[in-house]
Amino acid sequence: MKRRHFLQASLLATPALMLVCQTQAADTRIAHINDAINKSGRQRMLSQRLAKCYLQIGQAIDMPRSQKLFNASLTVFEKQLGELELFAPNAENKATLASLKKTWGAYKTALQGKMPNQQDAKAVIRLSEEVLALAHTSTLQLEKISDTAVGHLVNIAGRQRMLSQRMAKFYQAINWGVASSEALPGLIKARDEFLAAMAELSSSPKNTTPIKQDILLAQQQWFFFDQALKSNAINEDTRLRFATNVATSSERILETMDRITGMYEQLG
After folding, report:
1. Where are the beta strands (DSSP E) in the chain?
2. Do residues 229 and 242 make contact, with C-beta atoms less than 8 angstroms apart?
3. Which DSSP symbol is given to 28?
4. How far apart are CA 181 and CA 27, in angstroms?
5. What angle do CA 161, 204, 166 make, to 5 degrees?
6. How far apart are CA 206 and CA 61, in angstroms?
7. Of 54, 195, 231, 256, which has the maximum CB count within 10 A?
8. Among 72, 77, 79, 81, which residue's Cα sits nearest to residue 53?
């Protein structure tokens, strides 16, 4: 596949793409602090999803959806960064976003420079960590300004989206032989954090019936995602099948957690 096709793949209106495209048709202004926490938290997720998709494209996993998600995620990250910059409520948050914008520029260049390859993959993974750290700092700053139980729930639920993509990223990096020694411990840590946060969300007294139903769905989806993450390939055919299971199951749980985050945001 030519680089031109990789960078310009058209975006189709499939359910998996609705999550990353939904903000494009909406008002570009951030309406309130919980909206800001949600979008800032989504930047964390996109930092990991982009690396995951890069690794999947390089291995021809879950194509062409990986290409479409990659392009859509680039667009939404850029758009939301501009929205967050306009909303930034204080000097501290503005400074964090300025650092994020600079690091994002380097990350975007690495992602788009050429077709995904094993040599450049390590730099992509490293930059994904740097972008994640800054996006997380910005989200925590916004949660602190909110200083409400709802703001905390939006942050925690939103972080589950990121963890789903982070676990998948580590899996695909290991699968391709480009992972650092920190990948497997990182995957295990992200798994533990996901389970702890899910327990916290499940016990929240602010849960409505729709939130409870979607949390139950996410828990059911987790079983299949966790099984996929634990899969060990014995040949090339099973390697591709297991990696595809990780790709698709990570997207399903992401979509559910995004709905839950949005419902918490509306409680504010």
Report:
1. none
2. no
3. S
4. 43
5. 15
6. 39
7. 54
8. 72
Burial of 179 from C-beta contacts in 10 A (0-12 / 13-18 / 19+) = buried
Phi, psi of 89 (to 5 degrees): -85, -15
Read off the pLDDT band of 231 (50, 70, 90).
confident
Three-class SS of 193-245:
HHHHHHHHHHCCCCCCHHHHHHHHHHHHHHHHHHHHHCCCCCCHHHHHHHHHH
- Judge contact between 14 and 250, C-beta under 8 A: no
Which pTM does this prediction carry?
0.90
Number of H helices, E strands in the chain: 10, 0
Closest CA to 70 of 100, 115, 35: 115
Query: What are the pLDDT digits (tens) for 22-38?
Result: 434 445 789 899 999 99
Q: What's the token pair of residue 168?
A: 């998948």
Q: Do residues 176 and 66 make contact, with C-beta atoms less than 8 angstroms apart? A: no
Each as own residue / partner, the long-range contacts of residues 101-104 (CB below 8 Å, 24 or more positions apart, any chain) are 103/127, 103/130, 103/131, 103/134, 104/77, 104/78, 104/131
pLDDT of 125-144, one tens digit each?
A: 999 999 999 999 999 999 99
Tokens of 120: 């450049």
